[in-house]
Amino acid sequence: MNNLDIHIVGLGNLGSALLKGLKNLDNNLTFHLYEKEPKIIDFINSEFGIKSKTELEAIESGVLILCIKPKDLNNFIEMNKKKISENVLICTVLAGVETSYISKFVNNKIIRLMPNLSIKDNNGFIPYTKTYEEDYLSFETILNGLGIISEYEEELFHIITAIYGSGPAWYLELSSKIAEAATNLGLSKDDSNKIINELLKSLPAFANDEEFGDMVKKIKSPNGTTEAGLNSLMADSFDKIIFNAINSATERSIQISKEINNE
Ligand SMILES: NC(=O)c1ccc[n+]([C@@H]2O[C@H](COP(=O)([O-])OP(=O)(O)OC[C@H]3O[C@@H](n4cnc5c(N)ncnc54)[C@H](OP(=O)(O)O)[C@@H]3O)[C@@H](O)[C@H]2O)c1
User: What end-to-end distance do the CA atoms of the chain give, in Å?
Assistant: First the structure.
């Protein structure tokens, strides 16, 4: 593959995960990094040996990956839109920000991703949508190196953001509550955390293409411990609690989109 310039703006949680995953690839990529926060600039320099700049210079070619918070987007566009050549592919991971919004300011091709932090170890999953047809700059081929990529209609991104972008938080919050319950029932905090950590690591062994309900059926036995716990979850409206959480996250994505559009 020909050398490709990759510009990453914002090296926080997601930007640094993306950088790590891309650095792991044996590709001909040249990185240009932009970050405001001094502590992150130092961390990135010590971890990856690349000095971040605080301001964008003119970008003639390659991919510009936006990993800033939605609230910082308008200021970024205002300050930088004239510095970005039309050949540059713009890649955005911003929750709630539609490609059509960015297209109001620039004529570039745009690809929108909704990954989570698992891309740092190259075993992520990347839902994406884009405003063009071909594999421009072979960027989708490169993304494939970070995990499985899958294209969706952009209108589905609010729900995808809620279940996948935010998804690790749902499982980690549940884990935190299970550990808390075990501690309240008499296990030490260290033992609870250790066991739940091991439980999380064991979960991939259960994930296959079966219906989730069918997988649960294989774990529970009639009148057993799992069934007792599941019955208690249902009696306490677990399904409603989860629906409300996913719905709130989806609604927040819709709201961010409206805020960005000043609606
Ligand atoms: N974290 C996730 O798992 C995840 C998953 C999917 C999508 N996302 C999306 O990824 C984006 C970033 O999330 P994050 O959790 O990585 O946020 P974050 O940790 O706050 O990182 C964003 C970084 O960008 C910096 N920044 C802001 N404006 C800049 C500019 N003009 N030039 C250079 N650097 C700038 C910020 O610095 P200051 O703080 O000094 O402003 C901050 O250090 C968000 O839009 C989010 O919706 C995140």
Answer: 43
Give me the residue label for tokens 């075993």: 123
Span 217-256, pLDDT tens digits? 999 999 999 999 999 999 999 999 999 999 999 999 999 9
* DSSP code per residue over 31-83: EEEE---HHHHHHHHHHHS-PPBSS---B-SSEEEE-S-GGGHHHHHHHHGGG
The set of protein residues with a Cβ atom below 6 angstroms from ligand 1 is 9-10, 12-15, 34-37, 40, 67-70, 72, 76, 93-95, 114-117, 165
- Cα 4 to middle of ligand 1, angstroms: 23
CATH number at residue 247: 1.10.3730.10
> Are both 128 and 203 inside the same structural domain?
no
CA 162 to CA 145: how far, in whole Å? Answer: 24
At 27, is the pLDDT very low, low, confident or very high (cuts 50, 70, 90)? confident
